[in-house]
Amino acid sequence: MNITNDIRYIGVNDHSIDLFEGQYEVPNGMAYNSYVILDEKIAVMDSVGEDFAEEWLGKLEEALGGRKPDYLVIQHMEPDHSSNITAFMEKYPEAILVGNAKTFTFLDQFFETLPANTRQIVKGGDTLSLGKHSLQFLLAPMVHWPEVMMSYEPTDKVFFSADAFGKFGAFDYDDPEGWACEAARYYIGIVGKYGTQVQALLKKASALDIATICPLHGPVLSGDLSEYLSLYDKWSRYEPDKHGVAIAYTSVYGHTKEAVLSLNEQLQKAGVKTEVFDLARDDMGEAVEAAFRFDRLVLATTTYNNDIFPFMRDYIAHLTERNFQNRRVAVIENGSWAPTARKTILGLLEGCKGLSISENCVTIKSALNAESRAAVTRLAEEFAV
Ligand code: FEO
Question: Within its chain, how far is the Cα of 154 from the centroid?
Answer without folding.
Answer: 27
